Amino acid sequence: MYPTLRVGDRVIIERASYYIRRPAINDIIIFRAPTQQPGFREEEIFIKRIVASAGDLVEVHHGSLYVNGIAQNEDFIAERATYSSNPTIVPRGHVYVLGDNRNKSFDSHNWGTLPVKNIVGRYVMSCYRPSGNRPHNDRKGT
């Protein structure tokens, strides 16, 4: 999720909001690994950004993310994608998630859509030790 989050960041998540609302585009979510992925246990946790929801057509090409044919303005990503993905329609009960460090992220462009039932919670903010570890805008890009 670099540059929004960095290795070693401590994050605060909340679990209540998805009982009263659906996951939304640009929410940063924490979720259990998709069970269809070899090498990952079901209890492993990922953190990624929702870029498309049920009914959306999503694809990556020419370095940009397209949702329903519209190139997305993503000023929070580390760099433009160097890969392309096939057009995917997100099924009901699923979301499409990508990491902000697109070229180094293991996400929906690799393994497909994510069942909403796998979502554990929503990222709220990062916190740091009083020693002054790297101040930055905690909500950048959300």
TrEMBL record:
<keyword id="KW-0472">Membrane</keyword>
<keyword id="KW-0809">Transit peptide</keyword>
<keyword id="KW-0378">Hydrolase</keyword>
<dbReference type="GO" id="GO:0010027">
    <property type="term" value="P:thylakoid membrane organization"/>
</dbReference>
<dbReference type="InterPro" id="IPR019758">
    <property type="entry name" value="Pept_S26A_signal_pept_1_CS"/>
</dbReference>
<dbReference type="Pfam" id="PF10502">
    <property type="entry name" value="Peptidase_S26"/>
</dbReference>
<feature type="domain" description="Peptidase S26">
    <location>
        <begin position="1"/>
        <end position="126"/>
    </location>
</feature>
<comment type="similarity">
    <text>Belongs to the peptidase S26 family.</text>
</comment>
<dbReference type="InterPro" id="IPR000223">
    <property type="entry name" value="Pept_S26A_signal_pept_1"/>
</dbReference>
<dbReference type="GO" id="GO:0009535">
    <property type="term" value="C:chloroplast thylakoid membrane"/>
</dbReference>
<keyword id="KW-0150">Chloroplast</keyword>
<dbReference type="GO" id="GO:0006465">
    <property type="term" value="P:signal peptide processing"/>
</dbReference>
<dbReference type="GO" id="GO:0009003">
    <property type="term" value="F:signal peptidase activity"/>
</dbReference>
<dbReference type="InterPro" id="IPR019533">
    <property type="entry name" value="Peptidase_S26"/>
</dbReference>
<dbReference type="GO" id="GO:0004252">
    <property type="term" value="F:serine-type endopeptidase activity"/>
</dbReference>
<dbReference type="InterPro" id="IPR036286">
    <property type="entry name" value="LexA/Signal_pep-like_sf"/>
</dbReference>
<protein>
    <recommendedName>
        <fullName>signal peptidase I</fullName>
        <ecNumber>3.4.21.89</ecNumber>
    </recommendedName>
</protein>
<keyword id="KW-0934">Plastid</keyword>
